[in-house]
Write a structure and sequence with these properties.
The structure is a homodimer.
Chain A (H helix, E strand, L loop, with lengths): L19 E12 L2 E9 L8 E2 L2 E3 L6 H13 L3 H6 L1 E8 L10 E9 L12 E8 L10 H18 L13 H12 L5 H10 L4 E3 L17 E3 L18
Parallel strand pairs in A: 1-6
Antiparallel strand pairs in A: 1-2, 1-4, 2-3, 2-7, 5-6, 8-9
The structure holds a DNA duplex (27 and 27 nucleotides).
DNA sequence: GCAAAAGTGTTTATATTACACCCATGG
DNA sequence: CCATGGGTGTAATATAAACACTTTTGC
């Protein structure tokens, strides 16, 4: 229910301790066989000089998701057009009192899965923005360590039963690249032939690219190219060998 | 990132349009083979007289989850102790500008799965509180129709790969009751023998109750009793016949 | 006895797993 | 020609689905 604020009956917006709302992003990508996270170096207190997830305050006329896209474009130099098309997913909201020393700040966290992008340039409030390997990340500002860990867990689980993995790939990709996404996020090796059959047996997961141009990931035989299909769910799911879920 | 609010550098908490934060709950139960939702009738404008999800404002020293438990206890007459033990799960946050006509209100929505409880008594801001069959619910206040639909979808998906279904059951339950949870939420009939094997084959899903007392759900042969086990994930998952996922 | 639900067994289909093997390319 | 990754085939195993049958209760 959404009745009037406590201690107030006449909707006096300023009569109670205000909340600030931020949108923070865990932007993940697979680069050189390792999971990477987009981080910014904070330019001001608190936590000046520390690494943090990109994000910022939600403006009065924005939804949290709009704010997330805007902040991402501002802080990384992505074009607004690219940011508008990104796969963004709401992760959860962090509302513990005291998570920001200045005032009551509630953060709506998002997860973004992106293909390997060019190195970002800093901008906005961020002193600099960089991709860092997930394993090397420690001691982020605020409760961002926890947010990042939650994002990683969620992504690992969603790969099992959704077609999300294609979001890590460029528009056209080989099945080897797609498999590498799973292997990187799950940290296991998958059987190549079985992976291929599984993916191709799922209607709408990937669609072969017509023109028989082929491309190689480096060495070896050139592979057929695919695009992401229209399906979003995976049935039956692709379970990881030593499975866990959310 | 969480730098200073826009248009402000000195952390003047009152210099920008304030947000209010609410916690709203989709409390679901299975009753007489149908999914039911706990709703309250609004006692004041806006939407006075309309049905809404229980919930209310997050207080300055609370997290959203604490607020959700407190509001649930207040509005339904559940003991604070019961509310403290409920299975509560954050669903998502709704932040569209304009979702509340009075001011900028952001809602953190939770889903609660509860066993068949006694009819609630109204309290707090609510004129009355009632269980209503999910299928009959329409035209809730604010964007609560959407929140409720999201909650239902999430619960249906989570039954597949988590042990959540036991949250709908009382402390001791029969496998028939557990199966009815699945059948009700998914709207399909499940094969009894196969369901039984599947549940018993999952370590930690249910634990048999020692004393061989047995109980019947109504007619038929008395069934063995079980308690919820310590497992939270289901591996491999229990897929619904005509599957979908989140 | 009959209906209803529990519980056991069995058969068949489908999915997963673990390999062996050939193909095309770069160096 | 050999290392590397793409792609095909196949047999062994595990899981899921369908259904027949016995048991125990209330009425």
């Amino acid at each position: 229910m959404t009745s009037a604020p406590p201690e107030v009956e006449g909707y006096d917006k300023y009569a109670f301790e205000p909340f600030a709302l931020t949108a923070d992003l865990a932007v993940l990508t697979v680069r050189e066989g390792r999971l990477h996270v987009l981080l910014v170096e904070r330019g001001q207190e608190p936590y000046a000089g520390a690494w943090a997830l990109p994000g910022g305050f939600v403006l009065p006329e924005e939804s949290a998701e709009q704010a997330a896209r805007r902040e991402l474009a501002e802080e990384t130099g992505l074009s607004g057009d690219t940011a508008a098309r990104l796969h963004l997913e709401q992760l959860r909201t962090y509302s513990d009192p005291g998570r920001d020393p200045r005032m009551r700040v509630v953060s709506v966290a998002f997860t973004a899965l992106v293909p390997d992008l060019p190195e970002p340039r800093g901008g906005g409030d961020a002193a600099q923005a960089r991709w860092l390997p997930y394993e090397d990340v420690r001691h982020l500002a605020f409760d961002h360590d926890r947010i990042l860990a939650d994002a990683r867990e969620r992504v690992g689980a969603k790969l099992e039963y959704s077609c999300l993995a294609t979001a890590f790939c460029p528009a056209e990709f080989t099945l080897g690249e797609l498999r590498q996404v799973y292997e990187t996020v799950w940290g296991v090796a998958l059987d190549r032939p079985n992976f291929r059959r599984k993916v191709l047996a799922t209607p709408g997961f990937v669609r072969p690219v017509e023109g028989p141009p082929r491309r190689t990931g480096g060495r070896g035989k050139p592979a057929a190219l695919y695009r992401a299909g229209e399906a979003t769910a995976l049935h039956p799911p692709l379970l990881r060998p030593e499975g866990r879920s959310a």
